[in-house]
Amino acid sequence: MSTKVSIDSYSNNFLLRKIQGYFELMKPRVMSLVIFTAFVGMFLAPGKIDYINYVLVILAIAIGAGSSASINMWFDEDIDRTMERTKTRPIPLGIVSKNEALVLGIFTGIISLLLMQWFANSLATSLLLFTILFYIFIYTFWLKRTTPLNIVIGGAAGAIPPIIGWTAVTPEISFLPISMFLIIFFWTPPHFWALSVYRFHDYENVKVPMLPNVKSINDTKKQIVYYSVILILFSYLPILNQNVGSVYLVIATILNFVLLKSSIKLKNTKEKKLQPNSEGLKFFALSIFYLFSLFSALLIDHLV
User: Fold this and answer.
1) How does pLDDT run across 54-63, given as a tens digit for each residue?
2) Residues 35, 37, 42, 46: what is their CA dihedral angle, to the nearest 10 degrees?
3) Mean pLDDT across the stretch 280-293?
4) Exposed, middle or buried: residue 169 (CB in 10 Å: 0-12, 13-18, 19+)?
5) Residue 109's domain spans which residues?
6) Which of 60, 186, 217, 248 has the smallest number of Cβ neighbours within 10 A?
7) What's the domain count of the chain?
């Protein structure tokens, strides 16, 4: 997407343009996956809460994720202005200022915690607070610019929403939400490494130590296969719960076959000088479909 097209997508009305900018600061596409995995955690949890509480808990998780994203964009403004993938974000485009992003992030973070505490419980609120702080201070401020393990360790923040959703309904942590956490945790590295294979020069230009820049693209593609195998193994953990049955097993097996085949295909590709590896982008997109479908399988299995 070009910068011009991105600017043209914003309203000419000052107020509407600001609102659009604030919305984009919260990374709505990333937020949608967070919301869905949290919803699955809530749906599978034993016990019940009022329907309005379900809605407001999901809203709290969404706003909390948006808070982290906004502060992430505030801190990474220098990187975002340089990278092709991020230079059309609201701050580089001048739609919103850095200070606005910081204020939005702090404000929405406080609101999300108040909502969670009021409409759920202290355990869910504590987990949400931990997730926000982990993403900001551990991943954004520290890991992202210092180690190629940034995605491996930082992935914990994106893996907690199913547990938050579960504990919002049933204030205790058990095996099933932990298994969902582990699935997302081991899904995150191959998912983002595939993007870094495709966007190799982007990360190299801004000196962010993604695995392809620290090791090599070929090493990264091997790691994607290894982590995909680990992910596949962990994807069967929910079956150990007596409430998860054969419907999930069948769907997960089909998805795992597709994922493994795609990871091997990516590994076997040859890099072309100064050209991005399109298979990296394909695997990145497939991994999103994989996670969405795997968690959908848990829902379907539960309903059946």
Assistant:
1) 999 999 999 9
2) 180
3) 97
4) buried
5) 20-172
6) 217
7) 2
